Amino acid sequence: MSDENGTPDTPAGSRDTQDAHGTQATPADRPTGSTGPRPEPLRFFGTTWVEHDQGYTARRLAVAAGALAATVGSCLVLRFAYEGLAIAETGSFVTLLVVVMFTICSALAFRTTWDSFSKRPDPDRQASLRGLLAIGFAGSLAAYFFRALIEAPGEKLHREEYETALKQHEKRASRRTGNPSKKRRRD
Q1: 46 pairs with which residues across the strands?
Q2: CB under 8 Å to 169, separation ≥6 — which residues?
């Protein structure tokens, strides 16, 4: 841990590993002695999204398969709930109301989840939509599945932010070359 600000000395999501010869391997996203911005790790991917290394493709396929299995499982749960309403003989109006509610909530959850992969969601809005997203869990899982087929969910957003931070860091670092105390003063 750094004494100055309490942050770890190693970047988030990276670990030093030893190869077969016992030498330390440094991750590509963390050059030795680097003081620049560090990539934010993604769930299930860590920082492998930066260079698409260390089994990135296999992880994406596994995440897509897992999200698809969870989506199918959630649809089965909804089917059992529908059958429970039919067994309880609550009437066609209540059954229709429940089906429409789950359909609308799933569609809204899909859209909200899909949008959160390309821009940071507003925390207040997310808090107010928490119940809707819980009801529409099948839509959120489906969005995760479809996004995993394209890229790591959230990769586009994190890549844009990371590249912007790198450009800003390079710009600041290029302005601070040399020792400012040795500059000549203009008279």
Answers
A1: 42
A2: 36, 37
